[in-house]
Amino acid sequence: ADPDICGEKIQRYGLCAHVFCLFFASLLDQQENERVGLQGFLPRDILHAVNWAAQKSCCICGQSGATITCCEKDCDLSFHLPCAKQGGCVTQFI
To answer: Would you say residue 93 lies in a domain?
Structure first.
């Protein structure tokens, strides 16, 4: 994955994730202390998001593991962060 899009890859606690993918994943909440887990995301929450995303197909590429969902009400589309750019999706981190 392009580090300019997904961020650096971090590995800890038997997990591996791209930083920006953690920030944009729909089910993840960051803890106030960024030293906890991976950049403030708890390992158990990351595993839960991964298991949930394994059941979601990306609306751009069709593959499973899409952790980002559309914010529009009644829209159930999901996508991967790299696919968002390719598909013209608008991503916003607040």
So the answer is: no
Confidence (pLDDT) at 53: 93
Q: What is the largest CA-CA distance in the chain?
A: 36
CA–CA dist 26, 35 (Å, integer): 21
Whether residue 78 is contained in a domain is answered as: yes
1-19, pLDDT tens digit by residue?
A: 888 889 999 999 999 999 9
Check the CA dihedral 36-5-78-10 and report its sign.
negative
Instruction: Give the domain range for residue 34.
Output: 3-87
- Domain of 27, CATH number, reads 3.30.40.10
pLDDT in tens, 15-38: 999 999 999 998 899 999 988 999
